[in-house]
Structures are given as structure tokens and as C-alpha cells.
Specification:
heterodimer; A: about 325 residues; alpha+beta; Immunoglobulin-like; 3 domains; five-stranded mixed β-sheet; 6 helices; about 20% strand; B: about 230 residues; mainly beta; 2 domains; seven-stranded mixed β-sheet; four-stranded mixed β-sheet; about 30% strand; globular
Amino acid sequence: MAADAPAPAPAGAADGPNHGLRIFMLWLVLALAADLVIWFVWGPHLPPGAMSSSAANQQFDIKVMAVMAAPVMLFVLVFFGYSLIVWRQREGDEEDGPPIHGNTRVQATWITLSSVLVLALFTFGTVELVTANGAGAGEGASPIWKPGGSPLQVQVIAQQWEFTYRYPQFGGFETADLVLPTGQWVEFHVTSLDVIHSFWAYQLGVKADANPGADNVAYTKINDTGTITVRCAELCGLWHGAMFDYGTAVSAAGFESWAKATRIRLAAVTRLLPPYALTYDPTVIPQINKAMVAAGITGAAGLYYPPTDPVQP
Amino acid sequence: MSLPARIITLVVAFLAVTAVGAFVVLHYLLGGPATVDYAAGVTPNTGATVNVVMQEDPQTTVGSKPDWVTYFIRNPTTGAWVHTTLFQVPAGSRVDMTVFGFDGCTPLRNPVWGQVTGTIGNVEYVDGKPYHVLDSWGGCNVGHTFSIPGINLNVPMASPGLLQAAKPGLCATSPCTPGPGTPYRVMTFSFYTPHIDGQYFWQCRIPCGGGFLTGFGGPMQTIGFMTGNMDVVS
């Protein structure tokens, strides 16, 4: 389709300015400035921040993509603006534009650059998803990537309409307070006791589905102390909008102290909890139906109700 | 069609649409449970005490959902039981709460909610006896909970020792009346309200929506039955 013959130059082009060079220089200056601003000024403030390894990883990804996207967007805007100003129709100018049918050099450059950009983004995205604690393989039911050492295990138990957190390495106590240490890998095990929820710890850059009967793993390492906003990110019923709380990242020593004190404080209720497991199914936990079993009533899929329930379709 | 017939058809259609719109507005948007006012006549942020009285029943014979479990709140002025879960309390005050538990037992899905939190002393009194934890899995002990997550309040409601699923023997007509021949428990506990205005939802954490998936449908998702709001006003 493209013609090899060079496009006829506009009238007076031989003596006029080099528009291509002008556009290129304009674009180059603006693109460089934009990329520097994005990386050094805007970037550190991009969500979700850099409080944890996963958050910093996501911020880095967004910065890289913004730095790659900005020149493309700027080229379109510069070309558009330049055309509007320089090649606008002037008063008395009734002449048609040159009948351009293509330009091999321009097309080849455009296709090559586009391909390079897309392939680079594909490669970058794939690597980021698989390595570190990316959502592609560093998280999920069977994460490929795992951090070294012995991470702190924290089980996130979602239920309508609150998250509770269980610490199996500290006697398995369960609390509504999320407290995490800095400088140590945390291994979240996310599950649900009823409907589907989603554990979203914003400042940590962790968002993991909380599904009943499923153990969803996510890793992070916290860099700084501070407050963590936790929200449910999956519509889960009447009070979904109120299903949020605030966690705290404290120093390693502070965490140890808190965990030991909480273990003692919650000892009475910890004794009532089922043994620590990656998922919980109330229909098969033997303790739960003691009263029902004693009365000769067995549970059902609707949990605790006769076999005719639930009656919904 | 003649002109008069067309005009009549148009007017009838307009009236029908208007009537449907009015019904939707009045019935669904403006309708709903009443709010019981415990803040009237009480100066907020003075540490004054208000006495909130509720009951939880195995059924709702006063409405269109007779097989749904429900809470009732007592009107402090008239003493009448109101079928609602909305109540208003003054900010910066102490709430002394009394709940009559008429419903049978159902185990908690998560036994961690057997712990009393957020009350003064993290304690509740069941028939006058103090408890910090109730074990809903160990026996027929707990019927519901009264939980306000926004102020970390969680109080398991003891049951009169009968299974929720085996209702014979329990109070059968709501609102129930405490008295001989009707099994029930009395829970009392106290907590402080926040010092600023706000709406705090409360809920039951027992999966007591019998017949609904995971036990958390029906009354558990409907304001006026097992969940509602505590409005803190100043």
C-alpha cells in the first residue's frame, strides 16, 4: 500500500524549516522533562507508596510504565499542536495539501518503535509478574516464588463483615487487630468463612481474594512503620462498605512484645478456636455441631440447618 | 381510536405511572423501621447514662416474615416493644444495655466472637453472672451476638438452652414477654458512646438466617431484623 516514492514536498519546503527536526526537538525536550518529573517528582508519590516490598514493586512498575507512556503521548500531542499552529490554513490560502500516499521510512519507524515498546512492556510485565511477589506467580494458591528464611505467617480470615487475623507461630491466637513487624517477610494466608471477600491492605500493596475453602497466599516485607488501611474489595453483602479496619506496622521488637502480650490476653478464647488450618469448613469441624449432634440434628450445606435448607435455588 | 378515548388512555397511563412511582418512593425509599430515640432529654457528652432495652426472638410474628429471627427495641417513653433495629443514643454517654434472649442456640461460625469485647470491663452479665467468653461450640449456649464493629463491641447473647432449629418450647409470639413458662436469658452490659456524632452499624454474628446460603441471608442482611444502626447524636 505504501508508495516508495517520496511524498511531494509542500510548496516552499525546500527553503522552509525542517519540520521533522523541529517536532523531534520539541518532543525530545518535553519527553525528557516529563520523564524526569515522573521518575523523580511524581513517582515517589504514586500509589500505593513504598511502605512494603510489594507496594514499592508496584510503584516501580507504574513509574516504568508512565515513563514509557509519556513520550508516546507527548509525541501525539506535540505533532497535533505543531500541525495546528504551523500548518493551519492561513487567510487566502485555498491551495490543497500535497497528495501524500505513504512514506516507507515513517511507517517502518512507527511499526518498529511500536513493536519494541509493546514487546518491552510484555517482557517487563511478565518478569514483574513472575519474580518477586508479583501477582502472576508470587501469589495465589501455589506461589512459584517464595522468600527465603522463615516468614511470619498471618492468616487473614474474612467473614461478614470483618477481618480477623490469626498468628499460628504465636499459639494460633486470633484477633481483629492487624499488627505486623518491619524488616521481616510476612506470609499472608487469606481465606473466608462465608462468602467471597477480598483482603486489600492498601499501603502494603497486597490484595488477595478471600474465598471460602481456599488458601490464598501473598508475601510482603514491610519497610516502614505506620498505619495500614485494610478494606474488603469484593462486594460481600449489606455492610460491605463498612468492612474496613486499620492495621499497624511496628518495629520487630514492638511486634514481638505485642504478640506475646496478646497471646496471653486472648488465651481464654484461643482455647475455643479450632486447630490452625489453612481453610476452615464449619460443616466438618467436629466441635461445632456438638449441640446439634447431641440433639440428633445434623448440619447441612447451609451450615447448621436441616438438610432441606438452604431452600434458595 | 377517538380523541376522547386517546385522552382518557393517556391520563390513565400517566396516573398509573405516577402511582407506581409514589408507591416506590413511599414504600421503599421513605418506608422502613422506626428509630427508637434514647437521646431525647439527655445532654450529650456529660457521661449521662441511658438504659437501652432490646430482645431477640426466634420469629417475627408481627410482620410479613414470620419465620425470621429478629430483634425488638423497647421505646423508653411508652415501654412498648418496637420492631426495629435502629436506635439513637447521646454522644459521650454511658449505655447500660439489657437484652432479653428468647431465641435458641446456634453455634458461631467463628468461635472468636464468643469473647466479650468493647464493654466496660470487657464483661457481660448473663442472668447476673459475669462472663468474659461464651463457648458456642461446647454446648447450647449462644443464640446471637450484639456486635458494633465500629467501636469494637462484641457481646454474645446467651440462649435459654434450646436449639434454634428446635423451636418448640421457645417463645412463639413476638414480641415475647418475660415470665414463667417462657425460657429466656437476660444479658446486661455497659459501654460508652463516642464523643462525636456518627452512625454505627451493628450486627449479629451468628449465622442465624436459617434457610439462606451460609446462614447469612434474609434477616442477617435486612435492617429491622438482625442488623441495624446505632446513631450517636450530640
